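## Example pair
The file below holds two records. Each record gives the amino-acid sequence first, followed by its structure token line.
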Amino acid sequence: MGWRLRSHRLPRAWMQVTEGEAAVGGSIPMTGQPPNAESSREFVKYTFFKLDRSWRRLEAGQRREHIAEASAVIDDIATACWTRTYSLVGLRGDADLLLRQAAPAVDIFQTTVTRVLGTGLGAYLDTPYSYLGMTKKSPYRTHRHPEMESRDRRSWDLKYFVVYPMVKKRSWYALPQEERQKLMGEHFKIGHKYPTVKINTAYSFGLDDPEFVLGFEMDDPGDFLQLVEDLRLIPTSQYTESETPIFTTIRMSAREALQTLGG
């Protein structure tokens, strides 16, 4: 008997994003209708897979069978848990596939990886990176921007998605709240200059190694490059301890992403 995921009904507000506290060393307003603190507390998981090159030496027919099986499993998972797939092939050497998920409990993430690794393709997969976080209301959000809001949206499903884990220096947390709020104002101003870049902030304090795991969606990676470069020039950037590794991915269906592996 195969695995079946217990269906988790996700609040519609899961991706109705708030203004992210941590964006690239500070904070950028997130496009979307801000959820309340209770409804926004959803767990977020980014699971990266790396394919063993020996898989490409299998017969073409066997590779096709593996892709069909694995894509069917991922599609089935997506019926019970909000899931998106992305390819990193040709963009980064130490990871090939990303599963992006959201759920009200972390157990379903474990079930997901167990099912994927249990496929024929899974015998050739490792998980070099994995990030767990939770969404919640930013302590720095003081106002809304109706022109940048979009109701009932979990994701914009734009072509490119960048995963950006980040840790701040302890000196940041030693600043008075008023000072941090003031410094954040500069980030809001810069963020408003790049409405084509959408951000989702997950908080990882105590759950994983980073403090924040940021997700950026865009159709033009050049816009994101310019945004990050601009943010380097303001004072808040000096409070960033680390913001690597950074993963640039391309959104695809499960089958399309798996086919980029060489099937």
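Second record, same layout:
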Amino acid sequence: MTERNNQPVFRNQVINKKELTKMISWAFTNHGTARTAQMADKLKDLGFKFATRAGVSISVDDLQVPATKRKLLEAAEETIRETEERYIRGEITEVERFQKVIDTWNGTNEELKDEVVRNFKMNNPLNSVYMMAFSGARGNISQVRQLVGMRGLMANPQGEIIDLPIKTNFREGLTVTEYIISSYGARKGLVDTALRTADSGYLTRRLVDVSQDVIIREVDCGTQRGIAVRSMRDGDRVLIPLKNRLLGRVAAQDVVHPETGEVIIPRNQSISDELAELVGKANVEEVVARSPLTCEAARSVCQQCYGWSLAHAKMVDIGEAVGIIAAQSIGEPGTHLTMRTFHTGGVFTGEMARQERAGFDGVIRYPKRLRVRPFRTRHGEDAFVVDSADSGLKIALEGADGQQQTFSVAQGATLLVRDGQKIKTGQILAEVPITGRSRKTTEKAAKDVASDIAGEVRFADLVPEEKKDRQGNTTRIAQRGGLLWILSGEVYNLPPGAEPVVKNGDRIEADGVLAETKLITEHGGIVRLPQEVEGSKGGREVEIITASVLL
């Protein structure tokens, strides 16, 4: 394959599925369909030839469990143990305990997944499981994780997450308990796949029924309206840059360079690869593009609002049945989505906040302009949430030998350390929400703290303040945090004349003696204790013989 100026193209790199997609797209854009088909044919022959010669197979020995797995599990179990102790002491609620357990196991599972990938890359990059999963040929990281990492958290038949994870993988083999927990998810996956395949096909038919009349009937409806197109983001990460979202659309307004004011794309101009690249280089934040949603053509869509037919990389033809194309484009992934449960076997995967960890021992330093307020995390830990809207603020970790590590803290980030606190390597310093934006609205919700035992209430460092509202209802609010003790115990009624053998405030063990009483008899005579029979615990009766006759 050669470029247009007849310079041969040489790509000296590992070509996986993603790179292959890019290469075919490049060939299609630069050389048209016929040449691309030829290249794809040659690539297919090349692939078959070398797949045959490589002889890639799979055996039990190809499943290599990373050596660090044991340490990761031990660290997670230690964290869970501490959480349980905090729960028993009453420092955290049941919900906070559950959330901490779930997040701990999810975090461990993610770390183990990264360790699996690192282990393959460092020790055996030609491992057949690694090659199959990461080239995009067969399988994915989620399945490899279950084979050589850990299966992780599963859901029960009610859809609730079971806080007992499956710590083993299929290479090591599951225990009986783990197998029973696991088999529910696997069975459910198979049943759901069978049921949902029919639903997916039905969805496609309904979509076609609704949209079959949408056809390109005119060249330009003459509308001034359009939709704002921006880059697609997930927090700080850019998922799809703006230039990739513009290809084939028609500009509804002039696109202007933000610094020079020069018009990059005039209104009603279709956006090609080159123009999209110019928009990307100019760092334009937003482009108003024409869309079928804002098209003003009666009973149809016009050419200008639809844009390119991506199959031919040129403006769509008049008479094209774009409604049916759209219906099939939405319906087709539906069949693949039904298969997802089947492949992962009901394993629970949850998103977490991004955590910033310390790279070395040191002391934490806040910047002077940083404004924080106290905050209780979802795990019941005391922390600070960043109120400063200044995006350039960074907290610094200073090491003993002049080392320094800095972290950006955006508004809404949670800081788990105080200014001047000593930090150990690997300690979590901050959590940044995955969405990047914290919720501005706060919802009020009443959460009851219930007592497990009956007893007498005592306040320790807790100062309640009474407030009256307009309706005259009195509420008592704690002015500051403190402890609330419940004194619980058994009540023993002592009979008259009993002598206590304990003093007020003494500690007593179980089965300890509290008091002694005297048994007084009205009759005089001989005391006889009952005879002990072997195996019996002895009677509790004392006989007093008042008279006896000797014959």
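Notes on the second record: The two ends are 133 Å apart (CA to CA). Confidence is low (pLDDT under 50) at residues 341-351, 436-443.
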